[in-house]
Amino acid sequence: MSSESRESRESREDRGGREGRETGAGAAGGESGAGGESGDARPESGPRRDEQAVSRFVERFAAEMTEAGMQRTASRVFAALLASDDASMTSAELSERLSISPAAVSGAVRYLTQVSMVSRERDPGSRRDRYRLHNQIWYASLTQRDSVLTRWEQALREGVESLGRDTPAGARVAETVAFFEFLQKELLSLLDRWKEHRETLTPNPGNASRRPEDA
């Protein structure tokens, strides 16, 4: 083999080796840079949720609320809203998440609105309704329950007079009135203490979803 042919072959092998190394380096650089500024894949912001675990929580909590007396679909809608990061969803989102019809969502929301657990609002620039949990939902729910107890107490007071205070039935109803009086007094005190305690929580569970009008 001539020296010229040998030199040509060695030159080709050198070029091939360099190209192979450059190609390998480029591939490695592309893989390591996938999460960098020039890569297409970027880490998602915020914690990722296990949607199956979330669904199990929604159904379990809804079952507990149903067992306590709330309508089943309303319980599921409420639990789904509770599990939503911004505490709000559209009718279509609720229908898809819970595999129920829009009519079922509408009926559940109507009930939840009547008991002051959910409010209806309009998406900005859209004709879609969005359903949102009230801020401080449990506080608001107990406050409404306090007004219900007041009406019951008034009706029961009239019952005491109608039945007669000296009769067994009248005495029973009078004791019920006394119980409601005690319960309302303790409930108001309890809610005041909760408001004070809530400010000490870190992070405050209501701050993330609190809107200016709720402050």
Short description:
This protein is mainly alpha-helical.
Main attributes of the structure:
215 residues, mainly alpha, three-stranded antiparallel β-sheet, 3 strands, 6% strand, disordered N terminus, disordered C terminus
Walk me through what this model shows.
Helix 2 (51-67) crosses helix 3 (72-83) and helix 6 (137-163) packs antiparallel against helix 7. 64% of the residues lie in helices and 6% in strands. By secondary structure, it is mainly alpha-helical. Strand 2 and strand 3 form a beta hairpin.
Structural class: mainly alpha
- Helix fraction, binned, reads 55-70%
Q: What is the CA–CA distance across the termini?
A: 91 Å
**How large a portion of the residues is in β-strands, by DSSP E?**
5-15%
Runs in which pLDDT lies below 50 for 5 or more consecutive residues are: 1-11, 15-45, 205-215
Question: What would the principal axes of the Cα set say about the shape?
Answer: elongated
> Largest sheet, described in full?
3 strands, antiparallel
SSE succession: HHHEHHEEHH
Give the overall pLDDT as a whole number: 75
Number of helices: 7
Strand order of the largest sheet: 1-3-2
- Rg from Cα: 33 Å
Number of strands: 3
Q: How would the blueprint of this fold be written?
A:
Elements: H1 3-32, H2 51-67, H3 72-83, E1 88-90, H4 91-98, H5 102-114, E2 118-122, E3 129-133, H6 137-163, H7 168-198
Antiparallel strand pairs: 1-3, 2-3
